[in-house]
Design the sequence.
């Protein structure tokens, strides 16, 4: 079966994966498989044509289906990635660090990669920065910046941007995070994922209170602390307990 048999499959191929340049355009899905096979075989030191044939036979009849970025980019000479998804580095809790991460994300998306980021390193909304007059706006507010960037990158190409944002289940802004997309049109280009721990599930089962915490160095005043392994740190840190909520109430919000 070397043809696309449904209207939707043909539409997806034509809009996302079919390659065209000045020399012409691919006429069938088999042309796309030949292009991918040639690109894969091009790195072989010998018998490239034989390898190309082997790769084509793996692809034909949909026996093996590579990722979308391979279909779209392999053999096109475009400056794009052949990897679908990227786990981005730690987002540093500072304005320069945040915008370095934003730039890395923008470049990755420009080349066709989807991105995943952990915003747990960003101090909670309302926190007063040590040694500065500013008040932190929280991770969800900076996710809006990423969302706008994704919309801008999308405007330059045909592919919808793909982003995943995660947040720890004990971050003080977790409730704002899990309800953010309940507002119509907000964070439309993000999927959201909560980093759920065994400790939270135990607290849910026992109907206990759940402490929301953040590294103590982010706060001017002292307060009750606990020790936690924290995102981006090399070991356990003293973390300030910002407030406590019912574990089951948080779990219900996550499930909505």
Sequence:
């Amino acid at each position: 079966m070397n043809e696309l048999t449904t209207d939707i499959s043909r539409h997806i191929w034509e809009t996302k994966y079919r390659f065209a340049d000045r020399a012409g355009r691919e006429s069938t899905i088999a042309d796309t498989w030949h292009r991918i096979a040639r690109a894969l075989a091009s790195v072989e030191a010998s018998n490239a044509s034989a390898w190309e044939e082997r790769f084509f036979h793996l692809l034909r009849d949909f026996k093996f289906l590579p990722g979308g970025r391979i279909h779209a980019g392999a053999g096109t000479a475009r400056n794009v990635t052949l990897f679908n998804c990227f786990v981005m580095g730690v987002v540093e809790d500072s304005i320069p660090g945040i915008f370095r991460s934003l730039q890395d994300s923008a470049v990755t998306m420009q080349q066709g990669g989807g991105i995943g980021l952990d915003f747990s390193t960003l101090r909670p909304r309302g926190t007063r920065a040590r040694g500065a007059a500013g008040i932190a706006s929280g991770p969800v507010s900076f996710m809006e910046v990423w969302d706008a960037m994704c919309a801008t990158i999308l405007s330059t190409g045909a592919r919808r941007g793909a982003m995943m944002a995660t947040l720890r289940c004990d971050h003080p802004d977790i409730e704002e995070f899990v309800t953010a997309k309940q507002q119509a049109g907000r964070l439309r280009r993000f999927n959201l994922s909560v980093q759920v721990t065994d400790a939270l599930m135990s607290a849910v089962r026992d109907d206990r209170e759940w402490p929301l915490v953040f590294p103590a160095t982010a706060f001017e005043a002292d307060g009750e602390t606990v020790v936690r392994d924290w995102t981006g740190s090399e070991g356990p840190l003293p973390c300030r307990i910002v407030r406590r909520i019912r574990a089951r109430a948080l779990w219900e919000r996550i499930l909505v």
Summary: Strands lie at 20-21, 24-25, 85-87, 114-118, 163-168, 190-195, 209-215, 225-229, 236-246.
